[in-house]
Amino acid sequence: MESHIYHDGKSLKEFEIIANDIVHDINDMPYDVIVDIKERNSDLYEHTVMVTLLSVLVARKLKLDEKRKYNIAVGCLLHDIGLRFIVTRYKNRDFSNANPAELFEYKKHTILGYSALDEESWIAPISMKMVLSHHENMAGTGFPMKQKNKELECRIIQACDAFDSLISGMECKRICVQEAINQIKENNGKLMLHNRLNLMLDKNISILQVI
User: Fold this and answer.
1) What is the pTM of this model?
2) Contact 63, 16 (CB under 8 A)
3) Cα–Cα distance between 123 and 151 in angstroms, integer?
């Protein structure tokens, strides 16, 4: 996947096939599948795959239709495309201590990613919005535009991206899985998670298992 991301349009178009394959593979999984979640070092490829996996599993649990699951997969696969266009370091880093110039550079990745996909007519508007808004939240304190996205697709990626970023150290300091689960639950007011999505972040629920 890493070799395909963010090159020419032909390469990006291949994500249409990848997204369909992911949705079909997850549909074939047992409904009560266990996904082993472990903290690990930052890696854009692994982070992208895990956010996509978790988000589509959540979508299936919420009984979303095939088209919405596919659009979620596309948005997740491309959500961090903008990281390839910024020059500041973003792995295992606490941006609360970054200087204003570095923080501004980092926050540009959502807009840069959205802009990079502007001419990709095969991407649904909701998938594009996921790329733009995956760092927003329902408290209106996210970025780039402090929007309160009501679309379930956006809320799903916001939660799953936040969770996997915490345990992988992508765009933040890495912490252990249980700490990440606790932090996501504590921030539920910002994310405004669907009740069932919130339950899926409990170690006793079948989708996520703390190792």
Assistant:
1) 0.86
2) no
3) 17
